[in-house]
Amino acid sequence: MEGTSAGAPEEHRCVRCGTAYLPFRRGVPCPSCGVPSTSESGIVPAVLDAYARNLRDTGRPIPLTIQVATLWDDYLYRGLFFLKAVDGRRPRESEGSVIARMVEIPNGLNGGAWRAHVADFYRELLHVRRRSAERTK
Ligand SMILES: [Zn+2]
After folding, report:
1. How far is the CA of 31 from the centre of ligand 1 (A)?
2. Domain residue spans in the chain?
3. How far apart are CA 115 and CA 121, in angstroms?
4. Using one digit for the tens of pLDDT, what is the confidence trace for 38-83?
5. Rounded to two decimals, what is the model's pTM?
6. For residue 20, what are the β-bridge partners?
7. What is the pLDDT of residue 134?
8. If DSSP codes are grouped into helix, strand and coil, which group holds residue 1?
9. Is residue 136 classed as helix, strand or coil in its secondary structure?
10. Distance from the CA of 109 to the center of ligand 1, in angstroms?
11. What is the pLDDT of residues 3-27, one digit of tens each?
12. What's the alpha-carbon Rg for the chain, to the nearest Å?
């Protein structure tokens, strides 16, 4: 599928340093150089939709087999595993400690700035999910 992904809406590269990452909301700083994104990818609603749809259709939030082929998939499954961990956490465990636990899972994204980026992504998922739950009340 080389070539077909170029220019796809989920593709984003930092305008200054070219690092590929997903701006999960407008103004997310590049994890490499800190320049804020000027665009926004639809990854947060995509994760929330996939989570709800998987639960409804299969009774589990994450498919039995997953394939992480793109950066988009990486964020998508990271988000699904995070929401599963939050919803399945022990009663006395806070969302913040789940975030702290999940960002320590080894992955291809190294460095403190990437960990902060992923933690910010997790907080954004919770924030948007809470906001949409309030809207539908
Ligand atoms: Zn950058």
Report:
1. 7
2. 43-135
3. 10
4. 889 999 999 999 999 999 999 999 988 888 889 999 999 999 999 9
5. 0.86
6. 13
7. 86
8. coil
9. coil
10. 14
11. 344 445 557 899 999 999 999 999 9
12. 15
Dist. CA 82 → ligand 1 center (Å): 25
Task: Report the candidate in 135, 102, 134, 131 with the shortest Cα–Cα distance to residue 117.
Answer: 102
**DSSP symbols for 4-32:** TSTT-TT--B-TTT--B---SSTTPBPTT
Distance 105 CA to ligand 1 centre (A): 23
* Rounded Cα gap, residues 41 and 104, in angstroms: 24
Q: If you count DSSP H runs as helices and E runs as strands, how many of each does the chain have, helices first?
A: 4, 0
Q: What is the pLDDT of residues 109-127, one digit of tens each?
A: 667 788 899 999 999 999 9
